[in-house]
Design a protein that fits this description.
Blueprint (H helix, E strand, L loop, with lengths): L2 H5 L7 H15 L8 H17 L2 H8 L9 H7 L11 H23 L7 E7 L1 H6 L1 E12 L8 E8 L8 E6 L2 E6 L8 E6 L8 E12 L8 E4 L15 E7 L6 E3 L2 E9 H6 L1 E7 L2 E7 L8 E4 L17 E8 L6 H13 L13
Parallel strand pairs: 1-9, 11-15
Antiparallel strand pairs: 2-7, 3-6, 4-5, 8-9, 10-11, 12-13, 14-15
Helix pairs in contact: 2-3
The protein binds zinc ion (ZN) (2 copies).
Length: 366
Amino acid sequence: MDLYQVLGVPRNAAPADVERAYLRLARRYHPGINPGDGVSAELYRRVQDAYAVLGDTERRRDYDRGGASAPVATAETNVAFQGFDFSSLAEGASAATFSELFADVFQDAARRVSSPEQGTSVDITLQLSFDDAIRGGQFPLSVTRSERCGACAGTGQVARPPIACPQCVGAGSMRWARGHMVFTKACDTCNGVGQIVTQSCRMCGSTGVHGRSEVVTLGLPPGIETGARISVPGRGHAGARGGPAGDLYVTIDVVPHPFLQREGRDLRMQLPVAIHEAALGARINVPTLDGAVALRIPAGSTSGQRLRLRGRGIPGDPSGELPAGDLIAELQIVLPPVRDERSKELLKEFGRLNDIDVRRHLFGNA
Ligand SMILES: [Zn+2]
Ligand SMILES: [Zn+2]
């Protein structure tokens, strides 16, 4: 049997790939994992033999040359995994082999169980009126988040009068066999102490957290826009096993204004003016965020012309870093309904007196 095929690697595989393939197969067919499975035991033996050659630079070179491919003594391998006490790792070659094979697996499992974890974030959307968004200010919002239980400080356990551990009967350690491996390790139930000194926290059902609604006040700068995302550190869900809380994220959604549009720090609006106001000039009232403001329409104004009201846009930043924006009014000439004969006569007369082709620019100079 080709040793490269046994490990499932190409003949030019790098030493690291050979080792990876070996570890993967050795774990799968390990006799300790597959007790009494003859096929696995045989595959495991072949994997060991193949790696004994391909995992050794000199022997691999010999093998590639077609030289010595005699497998190592297999008896040694089989004996190696009989009777191994996990609590004492320094028990000769067998212990080393086993711990090497599975060390990272056990470490990962241990990390998953015991390490504190940061809580997850809380995401909410805050809908703001157009005016509120423009002005900014303090906005209280109700947030439901899980919070660390005060009764047990987030551990889920509270102290109780000590009793002997029922799991290990006070010994503090557990011993069990799997296949032909023997494990001992600290008792999970009492963490190796032999006594039970805590009990589940009744306040939180031993989860270490409870749901709580609280009011978080959000300070918003003037001129915040839809889609802005504000983070409030530590106001998300409580962390597991005493880990830090997650963050609170608030996404802003601004309700559109009926006639004002934002353009950076400026506001823009379409401002209807009657035909005579545009032609003759007028003083009209314009609605702004601070109420109506008088605006002079120059005589001879036309549709599309823009008039700027300084400082009537987004208010300035209180720090003075950002100046106030402007309100830009775009004129829109509106013709009132012409129903009476007198008005029609006047407009005909006006047309005769101002006989200019207003579309001449569309036809060039010809
Ligand atoms: Zn609790
Ligand atoms: Zn115990």
